[in-house]
Amino acid sequence: MNAQGTVFRYHDNVDTDVIIPARYLNTIDSAELAAHCMEDIDATFVKRVKQGDLIVAGKNFGCGSSREHAPIAIKAVGISCVIAQSFARIFYRNAINIGLPIMECPEAYDGIAAGDKVAADFDTGKITNLANGKTFQAAPFPPFMKELIAKGGLVNYVKARLKK
Amino acid sequence: MPMTMSQKILARAAGLKSVEAGQLIEAKLDLVLGNDITAPVAIREFEKTGAAGVFDKSRVALVPDHFTPNKDIKAAEQCKVMRIFARDKGIENYFEVGEVGVEHALLPERGLVGPGDVIVGADSHTCTYGALGAFSTGVGSTDMAAGMALGTAWFKVPAAFQFVLTGKLPKWVSGKDVILHLIGLTGVDGVLYRSMEYAGPGLANLTMDDRLCMANMAIEAGAKNGIFPVDDQTRAFLKEAGRAKYTEFAADKDAIYERVYNIDLSKLRSTVAFPHLPSNARLAAESGDITVDQVVIGSCTNGRLSDFRVAARIMNGRKVAKGLRCLIIPATQKIYLQALKEGLLTQFVEAGAVVSAPTCGPCLGGHMGILAKGERAVATTNRNFVGRMGHPESEVYLASPEVAAATAITGRITDPNEVV
Q1: What percent of chain B lies above the pLDDT cut of 70?
Q2: What is the ipTM of this complex?
């Protein structure tokens, strides 16, 4: 699987309160959540983002609240992959559980600017900045998580377990 | 291989003799928790798994505390989803308004969490129960759904940092000041993926409310969990809560800690975390002249009885500063009632504060005290991110109930020693 698109670049510690503010958490509708994605740090994000675009961020992306509404909103708004220097652990679990592709790559943050066109290969972990040809290697997923991703997320994993 | 306290608890829950940091395990869960924001998503995912019922009706807790009493129609619908699910699945620990409280104050009070338990909750502050010697961590809604269906969860066994506490806190300094100081040292991702394990003779000088407050904010250092050894204070708390059966674990003496912090409690002072990160710690006395529009005393961090006792001691006989809004939010009905009986609520109202029903409310910018553009709050809550309590251009300063009460009197960030 691959992702290719334009990069939206954010700083360290992007928290789930800014990814989707709590004032919108009175719904679980993906489209409604997507309509307010990132609005408190980037008011025009939702207007500018196109299907397949990527987010590149610094350290500790997704810190704070456990709200799964955050990766749901990012996925529903059309983001194909989030590349960060590191992820907060609950966000990391949530992204894998719901099938939002994420890649951990400290170097990519420094080598990619906002607006760059970037391609990411989920199988090899290779990230290419199409603006200048630079490539970066993301950390591989542990085998258990690869299996979880291959099964299509945690719900399918549970389904299979319950059938046993 | 020697193990930390968290590792020992996880090893037992995984049915393994020992575990080591980095190992992926599947552990049995003693309790699975969700609230009115996260449970509706979990219920949707749970239905997709095809599970007929939850793994154990007595080991699931559904706590509608965030937007309750229902703040609007949509929130009311979310709560209804929970209520119907709880009824249909026979969930024993569903708490309606009238008995509900802020989840991380309510569950310990009810004896639903205890030493040696492995607990996941679809709320990041689930780490609170580490104060009672449990391994307890926040997860998302899909993990909650899987936990309800299977009664298990997968974990990467965490490494740990150790925090060795000595000495005794000075007057008007409490658990909140300790944890804000620690997060100031580690940064908001300093303990990422690891356990914060507490040790040392200073622990005996920390109350259970101090410990609950400190474990609560482990997530703000990025940690997977925060955990305290079990002692006589813990046992007394559990007895009061009616929790009879539990298993105590202690870290091996030669357990490996990636880093050790030595903290002399007597050196700590009232501390405030400035916007917009919980790690922006400064001393209250050195905060400068920062005027405040709203003070909030409550939440899963500092909405317990001792928090209101100390706030009342500072506010009693004084008045809330003209033009400042002071909100008092007891975290549970039991705390509310006791505060009422002790006359604390009378003191707050006479001082010019307003007392709310138990709710998470303003902490997450939900309802009951939202900030307008440019407004500032001092809150005993746990997060001060951009827009956390309202408008994206509002500000939240995190502080102890002592600082919050002193600030309510003066109208600017104040060290309690200045007013009492």
Answers
A1: 100
A2: 0.96
Strand order in the sheet with B60-63: B93-94, B60-63, B31-35, B118-121, B135-138
Q: Would you call A90 and B124 a contact, using CB atoms and an 8 Å cutoff?
A: yes
Chain B residue at shortest CA distance from A43: B392
Quick check: A127 and A135 in contact, CB under 8 A?
A: yes
Closest Cα in chain B, distance from residue A11 (Å): 13
CA distance readout (Å), B415 to A85, B269, B286, B314: 38, 9, 9, 11
Give the mean pLDDT of B306-310.
98
> Which residues 6+ apart lie within 8 Å of A45 measured at CB?
A8, A37, A38, A39, A77
Decide if B50 and A94 are in contact by the 8 Å CB cutoff.
no
B188: which chain A residues are within 8 Å (Cβ-Cβ)? 13, 60, 63
What would the CATH number be for the domain defined by B12-263? 3.30.499.10
Q: What fold is seen in the domain B272-418? A: Aconitase; domain 3 (3.30.499)
pLDDT category at A42 given cuts 50, 70, 90 is very high
Confidence of residue A150 (pLDDT cuts 50, 70, 90): confident
Binned at pLDDT 50, 70 and 90, residue A50 comes out as: very high
Judged by CB atoms closer than 8 Å, whether chains meet at B189 and A63 is answered as: yes
Identify whether the C-beta of residue B81 lies closer than 8 Å to the C-beta of residue A27.
Answer: no
Q: Where are the beta strands (DSSP E) in B53-200?
A: 60-63, 93-94, 118-121, 135-138, 152-156, 160-166, 195-199
Tell me the one-letter amino acid at B402: E
Domain with CATH 3.30.499.10 in chain B: 12-263, 272-418
First to last CA, chain A: 29
Banded model confidence at residue A147, pLDDT cuts 50, 70, 90? confident
Helix (H) or strand (E) holding A16: helix A16-19
The tens digit of pLDDT for each residue in B246-283 reads 999 999 999 999 999 999 999 999 999 999 999 999 99
Please report the pLDDT score of residue A148 as a whole number.
Answer: 84
